[in-house]
Design brief:
The complex is a heterodimer of chains A (about 325) and B (about 270). With about 325 residues, chain A is mostly helical. Chain A has a single domain, classed as Orthogonal Bundle (ABC transporter involved in vitamin B12 uptake, BtuC), CATH 1.10.3470.10. The longest helix of chain A has about 35 residues. With about 270 residues, chain B is an alpha/beta fold. Chain B has one domain: Rossmann fold (3-Layer(aba) Sandwich). Helix content of chain B is about 30%, strand content about 25%. Chain B contains nine helices and twelve strands. In chain B, the strands form three sheets. A six-stranded mixed sheet of chain B has the order 6-7-8-3-9-10, with helices on both faces. A four-stranded antiparallel sheet of chain B has the order 2-1-4-5, with helices on one face. In chain B, α4 crosses α5. Classes of the chains: A mainly alpha (about 325), B alpha/beta (about 270). Chains A and B meet through α10 and α11 of A and α2 and β6 of B.
Chain lengths: ~325, ~270
């Protein structure tokens, strides 16, 4: 990328955020307007502007099903993209991503354990998912610790192994349970966004929003930490405290998101890389861009997942993986050269 | 003259393995101070101790008359800047973006640069002569240019003390000389103290005002290049013989390896 970039100023950050927010709003309107049932864009718009109390025939579909789903997709995209951005900066590895590292898998194990124990979604299942995320994170860091912590191969291999283990464990738990909900959990595993109400959505937003703010406040230290611990520390960054704060914030938002939407893979890889190509590597710009751009991406993927099949729908994770996996291979090849 | 760095009886060990042992050292303000010694003699550890990123197990270190523990990390970063051995960040940054990161200890909560900070970065880029490349991505620069970017980034912190860890290790002879000249000029113009770890004894002997020769974490000798670069000291530290004479063009020590017995008959069979 040789494109000359403008300085990163508060004005530019606001302008980019506003632009991507507009894009996100448009994608949500599109997601609300299109789908398998007969609610067209015009009816959807009438329902939206009419408020949740509107008696319009499409209003129930729009307010109970499509809008919560689109908003969950937006929160999911924002959390997972930002999670990818944070892990890439902390591990100084362009291929780091919550799903590839196995952190999403760990959250899923936690969440499934919580569900099978019959806990409420909040706080029980969310807490289990958070513990699962922290446990896998600890496991990955321990396995690739020492001199090889930042070597991408060691890290990726650890992540792949953790992922394989997590998948096996999830299957094990599911078969043990003999649960009637087996099919729905399997569907959820592939990244299903269709299972949330507006109330739960508010709770989810209340959990992830502070993480977004915390990460934005640490955006400039993240820039410095890309230069190495020693240089960051000698520039006045409290490296250890910043690392812990970022890991906790990223794990928290990824795990509570995964506990709602399941395993939507590769979002944290696709979105940060795309935005870096457009905007440069400065995190003061990338953090808000990942929040709004990531939201837009997953809303769009979920819309495709609902519209593409002739009958029914597929999980959004199918679309994100179909875009993300080839990109991963491309990035891996490029980083080897 | 006051001291930039005063080290008294410092010991540092990783686990039980002592890396620095009973080291005392004073670096005057404005010195061009070279730290030399064989691999594993504790040079980089010494740099990290002065930087405050390692804490000694015994003894104490003061910079600019105040113990290291008396500084906040930010305060210290406004006085001491580090130039790393040189690497390229995993993600692409333009030269000016990297240099501006040196403003970190002077910025507010959100870390946005004010106009003064942008100006200071432009001055730092001009000081190392990279104006024409300011908007280029770092990875497109040559090794010597990249090293100048790291120096500009450190300058941007407006430090009174600059620490360099083998800044010329990966460079060819011409670029090594260029970096040394640049450091000598910056030191003169800004009244900055320069402390540099080096493997090139001749180059260090020409530019440094004072030197420390380390071996096994202990000081073999501290003093002017003429005092430190003696055959006996080199033998102790590096375990090899050198011929030391005077540079033909001035009062600088010059080190030459003797002809090795393996090629003593003058041929290279």
């Amino acid at each position: 990328m040789t494109a000359q970039r403008a300085n990163v100023t508060p004005t530019r950050v606001l302008a980019v955020s506003a632009g991507l927010l507009l894009l996100l709003a448009l994608s949500i309107v599109a997601a609300v307007s299109f789908g398998s049932s007969e609610v067209g864009p015009a009816a959807a718009w009438r329902a939206l502007t009419g408020g949740p109390g509107s008696v319009d025939a499409g209003a129930a579909i729009v307010w109970r099903i499509r809008l919560p789903r689109a908003l969950l997709a937006a929160v999911t995209g924002a959390s997972l993209s930002l999670g990818g951005l944070v892990f890439q900066a902390l591990l100084r590895n362009p291929l780091a991503e919550p799903y590839i590292l196995g952190i999403s898998g760990g959250s899923a194990i936690g969440a499934i354990t919580g569900i099978l124990l019959g806990l409420a979604h909040f706080p029980g299942v969310s807490l289990f998912a958070f513990v699962g995320a922290l446990a896998t994170l600890g496991l990955i860091l321990a396995m690739s610790a020492g001199q090889s912590l930042f070597q991408r191969d060691a890290l990726l291999l650890s992540g792949v192994m953790v992922n394989a283990f997590c998948s096996a464990l999830i299957m094990f738990l599911l078969t043990l349970s003999q649960d009637g909900r087996l099919h729905s959990i399997l569907f959820w595993l592939m990244g299903n966004l269709g299972t949330i109400g507006l109330g739960q959505l508010g709770l989810l937003a209340a959990l992830v929003a502070p993480c977004f703010v915390a990460i934005f406040l640490l955006a400039h230290p993240m820039n410095l930490m890309l230069l190495g611990r020693e240089l960051a520390s000698s520039s006045g960054v409290p490296v250890r405290a910043v690392t812990i704060a970022l890991l906790v914030a990223a794990s928290l938002m990824v795990s509570v998101t995964v506990s709602h939407c399941g395993l939507v893979g590769f979002v944290g890889l696709v979105v940060p890389h795309l935005l870096r190509m457009l905007l440069g590597s400065d995190h003061r710009l990338l953090v808000p861009a990942c929040i709004f751009g990531g939201g837009t991406f997953v809303v769009g993927c979920d819309l495709l997942a609902r519209v593409l099949p002739e009958q029914g729908e597929m999980p959004a994770g199918v679309i994100t993986a179909m875009i993300g996996a080839p990109l991963f291979i491309y990035l891996l090849r490029r980083s080897r050269q | 003259m006051s001291h930039s760095v005063a080290i008294r009886g410092v010991r540092f060990a990783y686990g039980r393995q002592a890396v620095i042992e009973n080291l005392s050292l004073e670096i005057a303000e404005g010195d061009f101070f070279a730290v030399i010694g064989p691999n594993g003699s504790g040079k980089t550890t010494l740099l990290r101790l002065i930087l405050g990123s390692l804490t000694p197990q015994a003894g104490d270190i003061a910079v600019f008359g105040r113990p290291l523990a008396g500084y906040s990390r930010r305060e210290l970063a406004r006085r001491i800047a580090l130039v790393p051995q040189g690497s390229v960040p995993v993600f692409s940054f333009a030269v000016e973006e990297l240099v501006r990161m040196g403003r970190a200890p002077h910025l507010g909560l959100l870390g946005f640069e004010a106009a003064e900070d942008i100006d200071e970065a432009a001055r730092a880029i001009a000081a190392v002569g990279l104006e024409a490349l300011a908007r280029r991505p770092m990875e497109q620069l040559s090794g010597g240019e990249q090293q100048r970017v790291w120096i500009a980034r450190a300058l941007c912190q407006q430090p009174r003390l600059m620490l360099l860890d083998e800044p010329t290790a990966a460079l060819d002879m011409g670029h090594q000389l260029q970096i040394m000249r640049l450091l000598a000029r910056l030191r003169r113009e800004r009244g900055m103290t320069v402390v540099m770890v080096s493997h090139d004894l001749n180059l260090a002997g020409m530019f440094a005002t004072r030197m420390l020769l380390l071996h096994g974490g202990r000081a073999v000798c501290t003093g002017t290049p003429q005092e430190v670069l003696q055959p006996a000291h080199i033998r102790t530290a590096y375990g090899c013989e050198v011929l030391v004479d005077r540079h033909p063009q001035g009062d600088f020590p010059r080190l030459t390896l003797p002809v090795d017995p393996a090629v003593a008959d003058g041929s290279r069979m």
